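dumping this here before i forget
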Amino acid sequence: MSTSRALKALLLAAGLASSSGCVRSYASAPPLAFQDLDYTSAEARTPWPLKRMALPKTAATYGLTRVPEMAFVELPAAPGARTVVLIHGLGSYLKFWQAQIDTLSRAGYHVVAVDLPGYGKSDKPGSFPYTMEAMADAVRELTQGLGVEHPILVGHSMGGQTALSYAIRYPSEPAAVVLVSPAGFEKFSPKEKAWFTRVMSTELIKSAPEYGVWGSVRQANFQNWRPELEWLIEERVRLAKSPEFDAYAYANVRSVTGLAHDDFVRDNLHRISVPTVIIFGESDRLIPNPFMHGGFPRDIFEHGHAHIAGSKLVGLEGCGHTVQLDCPEPFNAALKAFLESVPASGTVAPPPSVAPEVAPKTPPSPPQVPGPVDAVPPATPDRQGPPATVLPHGS
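structure:
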């Protein structure tokens, strides 16, 4: 059996294991465009204020011929409040912070939740490198464009590895880092990296059947599935029918390559010098990678904890990988407890809210990276070219 067929078989098994009893099917539902995703407060049932910002600095750094735009939600706060930047994980978008955006805003924080390039309502350029360094530079340009000098970075999974890259390469900038079930701690051998490259393809993502989506989302990411989370399934199934799904699938494939081949983050954890907490689910089924070497989640997160000086480690019992949605109450309690413990030094008042659709008039110069030269990875401009033509598949 080929590696891709073996992976599909595993996804099928996960789907069957998670589908005891009847579940709703969305296969006959109409297509959903990424721009029509419902970014609405679960509590107030009102839309969050969505904005877009052009990223000319990131485009110049990575040799992009077109300046991409990044979508984000911003909830302002009183003068003097800290800024919390929420960074989602692989395959997801800012709505995965649904249980935190309003909670943090009510607690008095200036909240910025981003759609990374390639995801959600942000642009999905084929020429973007989709490395964690490029993702971090995009987040950094956005926060700087908002006038935020010392953000608190909160990243889930791939977003955690993005936050790690940001904190390692620009150590004086973040006020603190919150790593939520983060990627970046796990070691992959050369053979495992080659397996990722061989198996992951846009066709694999596009051809995933609905029962596979149920399995990969519900079984792999959650321990405490609830009916109100079914939007995760509905949106994924309907998005697969969108013309933009090809670009999204390609971004996922490139992101997986960027994640697996990024030893820079794991090798430089000791360079993180700001208050850091690692919050994870003790029943995480995705870290460590179950297709590769297996093991126990705590062992992986203990490695990061041991190599980040002064960091805190918080494991939540009975919680899975997408812990912020799986166990929102204990997660929010742990998150707020850490945020309240962060020293006041280095924080700034939130700036005036940027107007939607407004970009800087002139592209800034490429970023000047502080810190030792050997702490900075080489630039990762587009080395793989635009995506190859992929024949469309039904969902």
